[in-house]
Amino acid sequence: MAAPKKARASRNKDLIKGIGRLSRSKVYHKRGLWAVKAKNGGAFPTHKPSQPPVEAKAAEKPPKYYPADDVPKPIPRSRKPKPAKLRASITPGTVLILLAGRFMGKRVVFLKQLPSGLLLVTGPFKVNGVPLRRVNQAYVIGTSTKVDISSVNVEKFDDKYFAKETQKKKKKTEGQFFEANKEESKVLPQVKKDDQKSVDSQLIPAIEAVPDLKTYLAARFSLRSGMKPHELVF
Question: 68, 99, 111, 122: which sits with the fewest CB atoms below 10 Å from its CB?
Answer without folding.
Answer: 68
